[in-house]
């Protein structure tokens, strides 16, 4: 199993400029530095002292960036063995072992394992493979979880044509969409029960 240096780096904070590895192969689609910088400029005031959940974590770049910028703890979940090894390597490179927890397996089993532990996630990143409705499925599961609340910001990276408005019927409110050339970020929060 091999990881490759991606040229992808931590943009700001305590681990600034450290290069991150990405798993080789087509299973992981790293968020570019430019998009990551835009995303974290939007989130900058929501990160400090928060627990962060990085579902479908890939290389772990989003959770690591959050830790670098002041998040308290991050949980990384991915089902790929190459991705998990890469996440562990990147966490060690950035010296975040004390603040990070890595779960292998699908998101259902990871969320089941986390339920009842002392996490309340202020930020949840979801960057699954496009076109498989995994983000919507995960959001539906998270809406019933005690680990998130009305203060949680959910950030989904998805294809431009994906529509998440159906989730408004399930208690989510879309705060904004940030469009890029080939994909977009959708920012959501849970609403009060109607």
Automatic annotation (TrEMBL):
Keywords: Methyltransferase, Transferase. GO terms for molecular function: methyltransferase activity; nucleic acid binding. One of its GO terms (biological process) is rRNA methylation. It comes from Oribacterium sinus F0268. Pfam families: Cons_hypoth95 (PF03602). InterPro entries: DNA_methylase_N6_adenine_CS, RNA_MeTrfase_RsmD, SAM-dependent_MTases_sf. SUPFAM superfamilies: S-adenosyl-L-methionine-dependent methyltransferases. Gene3D superfamilies: Vaccinia Virus protein VP39. Its EC number is 2.1.1.-. Transmembrane segments: none annotated. It is an enzyme of class 2 (transferase). This is RNA methyltransferase, RsmD family.
